[in-house]
Design goal:
The complex is a heterodimer. By secondary structure, chain A is an alpha+beta fold. Helices cover 28% and strands 23% of the residues of chain A. Chain B is 31% helix and 21% strand. The chains are: A alpha+beta, B alpha+beta.
Chain lengths: 803, 492
């Protein structure tokens, strides 16, 4: 007879003198493989478009505006409705509930409502018997739009006061006095281009009509709870009627934080209308036209500097090109402002952040969340200062590092791990042979008119926490079943970053079990409710703590039970290698996990727990522009060496050395994967990935043929990546680890700085060469020509706005 | 009906003419391991392996993008997908095991495609274990067509290098020999009803061409199929050129002017052309590696690149510089014309409606005659040129002779820079002479601005390529000069 309490064949208990084979190999801190690795390589890991659907399921496609700004004067969808295979066609008037699905602030219509605000905006949706039939039907729409002038220049928008959110300032001290006291003043303007996420799996979701008025949604999504809320609002039903599930994403990078929801809303709507399961997946070209990207930024800076190159203070302005609506732009431009110091004390400074409205897709979260664009300001300035004073840029960078006495940021937060920053950079200087290579490069350049080499070391200091305080919370749900197998569920989503693996490791570590005993299940709003997005690098920090909280609670209950039931010394009870152990030496008792669980179940002890976590200490006073927005900072540094063909503008990244701080790593292999992947993605942002719009505001880099992310050959021939050792997190994060998702992205800035270094060799390192990004061969060639021919001032002129 | 093998098992399926291998797999056969990332052959997420018999009757596997491969071209082939690799669904293939061991997957979406590219690399090594080791160039050639947005490729490089020393299982059915006769089953027995024709003889191809003026010719489909997947066209009728035996030949011969060289069948793939070019024109062979990924080189053809007449096709400027000849075949036989007379206007050629491009003549290399091909693009691999320059010349007593300067991306057609050629012809390669050529170049072309580069950049960079040419000639004639004039990865 099989009962609920049956166990697999009991394993012989091992004697204390024979340690169990699993000596913590896969516990937290070890390089366990990604929990889905074998499924990935065999093609068995299911993504949204792989899910089997009922035979009568429908496939959706969306009709998009080709006009950037205007008024819809005619939308004739009769031919769409009568196209082969079409079952349903909807536009905004068919929405029963809310039509504005703005995630934080209003401003995002689910489908255009009279007015069109960007080329690519969704006008209507079609459901048909096949994906191809739906797409072909879309082409039959007759759309007439009375075009209005489109605003495509964010700088002009700021001048005109056309902003999606109010301007914000952070002021520390008497910033104007800094110029009076300065030995030199450096000033510049820069354009920092945006970036397409290019997650390999495009936006996709499936909706099944469920009981009563509800829907069950499967979505490739970083924020299931927000999708749940928006779907409920669009359908006009309570949140408990909507369940959202995300097993895994084929990449997210921020692009599925807010911008996965519209597709779920449309799909849910048609699933309810037709009573049939529906799938929507955006073809790549639609995905690129419709969804927002990393914000392009227009920055300018004026800094007063002393005779040693140390910044006294100054004035920094950053303008984020937000697109047509607020989306997350308020927080993104804030984070650009928070990171305009990078690892350097700015002294007495005024930092101003503008949120410009343009008639383009609503720009959104992307790994770094504005931080990278802010850092570009000060990294440009470091090079400018160095050239002005004839010093090596690394010398100037180090002189400006946060240090004792200069460790308060311009928004009032103390940087407490300055020693870590200094040691990290010193170690990297040595391991990369920075100074010997510097000398060799100068000698090479002196003899080489066409090919020039450049070298740069750039640091990263990145603040960890959501700057929206309420998002810094997480929940987890832990079940132990009667065979001893453990299921952990939490609010975070898996997009390839290895979060689920790390969470399993946390639980395995707390319960003293082999990693194989712990399995994660898909993120679902009916398991852990009211969750935050998996974003801001916070996934493991927040959800790891919540999972640990659940495991600790359950462990405490089991230990209390065991102490009483087995008459054990409660003080000595612990879990190790799958056994509950109590006492020492002769009196040691070992109880196998499975036996413990079975006994606890029969004794009617609950084998389920939920965990919760809220990050302590953080706050930010927006009115004063001051506070402690970040729980801690993560650090890193990279040295890049490039060779530039100054005739053609082509270049190669020859060697990269990285040293990165993750505190005490939860999983070194996964962390190194994040560091390397982040670096290459950051390098792509600043080099080959160029977004281009035509003068009508249409994105013309709208596929992988025209938008070039790094490929295999862009991997530097020499690529040394190490994790910093011996510096656990100074704050009580999960096992003193640090967040790793975003910070390494900004290590890519070293490549851009190395290009500027190589270009500066053309004028004997006497002048910094402006270089807008992405630094395509076209821009590098132009900069090389300018370096050869133009002498004089340090003021940069941004030569393109990317449109 | 299409008859083929899928992961060791025979299959017979019906398919519309416009159906891709990817749609066949995912939608008809419900094998979803192969992913769609772009449906344009640019990302490699849909990479599969195609097994076909080589000239020696050996079964060989090559990688292909399933998203832009017509399903009908599977006829008589062995299709291998990621689902097939794990033997009995139990033991991982070395490519899979290495990817797991090296932490080569993060989000996992590109992973099946990468595994399949590694698989074909593994098969190459299996077929010729003593051939060249896995040099960085060879790895790049094998993996350049697979985009990964997560890892930054380092662990994938490690996996490729580790693959051969990892104990894994190679399914035995990979060596099963295909029945050669199958290749011929998909004929036009029911020509009236079929909309996908697969002739085997040139005269059948010409007959079909004349009978169906509305039909589109397809070879590698690396460009045509974008009309199906991106513009959603249902092609009314398709004629496949890849099984025409005459179009698959590489024959030594002479052109109409009596020059020795090779006639390359129009349906010969880049991959098959590469060994010949490596021997004759290494710079041209190198270009093939920047023209497209392995998946594209395995399917794309020289004939397709010419007949397509794109202003940014990479091989036409080279053919212009080499003074290549084209053989056009129609109902009344064949004629030969110079490549430079073939391109008439934007996407317009001298090919008559009832003609097909049947072969391309590439002259043999000659002692002293030089060829340089330089491509400028945002990304080194698998990108479309902003500008491509192909330059041929020889020096006679220190004077430039028979200078041919051809460019792509500078006009509506691939074209020679006649003014710049004239400025150089018969002169010594001095800075002054090249200055004059660069000046003439500004009158030769008025390029346009697009997503790949501005008009100004095109003009300046074309000019920079002439300056590079001068430096290359200078450094080749002055042995004492050691300065580098090009980056090592571009120097060919």
């Amino acid at each position: 007879m099989r009962t609920l309490t049956d166990l697999p064949a009991p394993q012989p208990e091992q004697k204390a003198s024979q340690p169990a084979q699993n000596t913590g190999r896969f516990f937290s801190g070890a390089s366990a493989n990604h929990e889905s690795a074998i499924k990935h390589v065999t093609g068995r890991a299911a993504y949204i478009d792989d899910l089997a659907l009922p035979a009568n399921a429908l496939h959706l496609a969306v009709g998009l505006s080709s006009v950037a700004h205007g008024r819809i004067t005619r939308m004739d969808l009769d031919a769409v409705r009568s196209a082969p295979g079409v079952v349903d066609v909807i536009s905004v008037s068919d929405v029963p509930g809310h039509t504005d699905i703005g995630p934080v602030f209003p401003g995002d219509p689910i489908m255009a409502d009279g007015e069109v605000l960007y080329a690519g905006q969704v006008l209507f949706a079609v459901a048909a018997e096949s994906h191809r039939a739906a797409r072909q039907a879309v082409e039959k729409a007759i759309i007439e739009i009375e075009a209005r002038p489109a605003s495509l220049d964010p700088v002009a928008s700021v001048t005109a006061g056309d902003l999606v959110r109010p301007t914000h300032q952070q002021i520390s001290g008497d910033w104007e006095k800094a110029f009076a006291d300065a030995a030199i003043v450096v000033a510049g303007k820069q354009f920092v281009g945006g970036q397409e996420h290019f997650y390999l799996e495009g936006q996709a979701c499936v909706a099944h009509p469920s009981e009563d008025e509800g829907v069950m949604i499967h979505t490739s999504n970083q924020h299931p709870s927000e999708t749940q809320k928006l779907v409920a609002e669009v359908l006009g039903i309570p949140l408990h009627a909507v369940t959202v599930e995300t097993r895994r994403m084929g990449g997210g990078f921020g692009g599925k934080e807010t911008q996965a929801s519209p597709w779920a809303c449309l799909t849910a709507l048609i699933a309810r209308r037709t009573g049939r399961s529906c799938r929507l997946r955006l073809p790549r070209v639609d995905d690129m036209r419709v969804t927002g990207k990393r914000h392009p930024f227009h920055n300018d800076y004026r800094l007063g500097v002393d005779a040693h190159g140390v910044i006294l203070g100054g004035d920094i302005n950053v303008i984020g090109d937000c697109g047509y609506s607020p989306d997350l732009s308020d927080a993104i431009v804030d984070r650009a402002m928070f990171h305009s110091d990078n690892a350097y004390s700015l002294g007495d400074v005024r930092v101003t952040g503008h949120r410009a409205r343009t008639h383009t897709a609503s720009n959104t979260a992307f790994r770094g969340f504005g931080g990278p664009q802010g850092m570009m300001v000060i990294e440009a300035a470091m090079e400018d200062i160095a050239r002005s004073l004839g010093e090596d840029p690394l010398t100037i960078r180090k002189r400006n590092f946060y240090r004792d006495g200069r460790n308060t940021t311009h928004y009032g937060q103390t940087v407490d791990q300055t020693v870590l920053l200094h040691e990290l950079v010193e170690q990297l200087e040595t391991s990369s042979d920075y100074w010997q290579r510097r000398q060799a490069i100068q000698e090479f350049n002196a003899k080489s008119p066409v090919i020039r080499k450049g070298l740069a070391l750039t640091p990263v200091k990145f603040g960890i926490s959501f700057t929206a305080q309420h998002l810094n919370q997480a929940g987890a749900l832990l079940h132990v079943y009667t065979d001893g197998s453990v299921m952990i569920n939490h609010g975070g989503t898996e997009m390839g970053q290895g979060l689920h693996t790390k969470i399993c490791q946390v639980v395995a570590r707390e319960l003293g079990l082999d990693l194989d005993s712990v399995r994660i299940t898909a993120t679902r709003t009916d398991k852990v409710p009211n969750t935050s997005p998996t974003a801001a690098s916070s996934g493991a920090d927040l959800n790891g703590q919540a999972a640990r909280d659940a495991a600790l609670k359950l462990k405490t209950r089991l230990f209390d039970f065991a102490a009483e039931h087995y008459h054990l010394d409660r003080e000595t009870i612990h879990m190790k290698d799958g056994y509950l152990i109590a006492g020492f030496g002769e009196s040691e008792r070992r109880i196998a996990w499975g036996e413990l669980i079975q006994t606890a179940y029969l004794s009617r002890i609950s084998l389920s727990e939920k965990g919760f976590y809220a990050t302590p200490l953080i706050h930010y006073d927006r009115a004063r522009g001051s506070g402690r927005p970040f729980y801690y900072f993560a650090f890193g540094a990279a040295v890049a060496e490039v060779s530039i063909d100054t005739l053609s503008g082509e270049y190669l990244v020859e060697r990269v050395d990285i040293l990165h701080d993750v505190g005490d790593s939860l999983n070194p292999a996964i962390d190194i994967g994040q560091v390397e992947g982040g670096f290459i993605q950051g390098m792509g942002w600043l080099t080959s990935e160029e977004l281009k719009w035509n003068d009508r505001g249409q994105l013309i880099s709208n596929g992988p043929a025209t938008y070039k992310i790094p490929t295999y050959g862009d991997l530097p021939a020499t690529f040394n990546t190490r994790l910093m050792e011996g510096h656990p997190n100074s704050m009580a994060s999960i096992y003193r680890s640090k967040a790793v998702g975003e910070p390494p992205f900004m290590l890519g800035i070293s490549v851009w700085a190395a290009l500027r270094d190589g270009l500066a060799s053309l004028n004997g390192y006497t002048q910094a060469i402006p270089l807008d990004t992405p630094a395509t061969p076209e821009r590098v060639m132009a900069a090389a020509e300018a370096a050869r021919t133009k002498l004089g001032h340090t003021t940069n002129e941004g030569h393109s706005n990317g449109h | 009906m299409i008859t083929f093998h899928l992961n060791g098992q025979p299959h017979r399926v019906a398919a519309d003419a416009h159906l891709s291998v990817l749609e066949l797999l995912r939608e008809q056969l419900h094998l979803t391991g192969t992913k769609e990332g772009c449906a344009s052959g640019d990302c490699g997420a849909c990479t599969v392996a195609i097994g076909a018999l080589d000239a020696n009757g050996e079964l060989r596997y090559h990688s292909a993008n399933a998203c832009i491969m017509p399903a009908h071209q599977l006829q008589g082939r062995h299709l291998v997908t990621v689902e097939g690799l794990a033997d009995n669904q139990q033991y991982l293939h070395p490519a899979q095991a290495a990817m797991v061991e090296c932490h080569g997957s993060q989000c996992g979406f590109c992973t099946p495609g990468i595994v399949m590219s590694l698989f074909t690399l593994h098969e190459e090594q299996h077929a010729a274990p003593l051939a060249a080791p896995l040099s960085p160039e060879r790895l790049e050639a094998a993996l350049g067509g697979n985009l990964c947005r997560c890892t930054g490729y380092r662990p994938i490089r490690d996996a490729a290098l580790a693959m051969n020393s990892i104990d894994g299982h190679r399914p035995l059915w990979l060596d099963a020999t295909l029945d050669d006769a199958q290749d011929n089953q998909h004929t036009d027995l029911d020509e009236a009803s079929s909309r996908f024709h697969q002739p085997h003889q040139l005269n059948d191809l010409v007959r079909l061409r004349a009978a169906h003026p509305e039909a589109r010719l397809v070879a590698g489909a690396t460009d045509l199929w974008l009309e199906v997947t991106q513009q959603l066209k249902d092609l009314p009728r398709v004629i496949d050129t890849t099984r025409v035996s005459e179009l698959q030949q590489i024959e030594q011969g002479r052109d109409v002017n009596g020059r020795p060289g090779w006639w390359i069948g129009a349906a010969v793939t880049y991959a098959r052309l590469e060994p010949l070019l490596n021997k004759e024109y290494p710079t041209f062979a190198h270009l093939l590696h920047r023209l497209g990924s392995a998946q594209v080189r395995n399917r794309g053809t020289l004939g397709g690149n010419v007949a397509n007449a794109s202003p940014i096709g990479d091989t036409p400027p080279v053919l212009l510089a080499l003074d290549a000849q084209l053989r056009l075949t129609g109902p009344k036989g064949s004629r030969e014309i110079a490549a430079s007379n073939f391109f008439i206007d934007y996407k317009k050629t001298d090919l008559a409606e009832n003609e097909v491009l049947s072969a391309i003549f590439i002259p043999a290399s000659q002692t002293g005659r030089q060829l340089k091909v330089w491509k400028l693009s945002k990304r080194r691999e698998d990108d479309i040129s902003a500008v491509l320059g192909a330059f041929a010349w020889h020096l006679e007593d220190g004077y430039l002779r028979d200078v041919r300067l051809a460019f792509g991306g500078m006009a509506g057609i691939p074209a020679r820079a006649r003014g710049a050629e004239a400025a150089l012809e018969g002169h010594s390669p001095s800075p002054t002479v090249f200055e004059a050529a660069r000046k003439a170049l500004t009158s030769d072309f008025s390029p346009m601005s697009d997503v790949r580069g501005s008009a100004d950049y095109r003009q300046r960079s074309a000019s920079a390529l002439l300056e590079r040419l001068r430096l290359v000639i200078e450094s080749s004639t002055h042995a004492q000069t050691t300065q580098e004039v090009m980056l090592h990865a571009y120097a060919h």
